[in-house]
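Quick one: structure tokens for this chain, please?
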Amino acid sequence: MFVVGAGALLIAMGLVLYRLYAGPTLYDRVLAVNAFGTLTVLFIGVLGFLSGRPDFLDIALLYALINFVGTIAVLKFFRYRAIGDVSASPPRQEGQE
């Protein structure tokens, strides 16, 4: 049963990679990268269960945290065009490009 789940996760990862390539907007691509990271965490967990190594769950949790922080950093960068202190530049208004 878990082998079928691992196969389904690999198929879903392929579909998400297609969305990453074909995404019409930047936010579609960021969402695809985040979804790919989530599917990777699930795949690492299933792989750890199949191989009988519960320490893979620690690796999956660490990867989930890195995925979350990375997604927030990328979205902050595309909103403010800076990663560091953004108090020097005023935030953009909605509707402005």
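Residues 21 and 29 are 8 Å apart (CA to CA).
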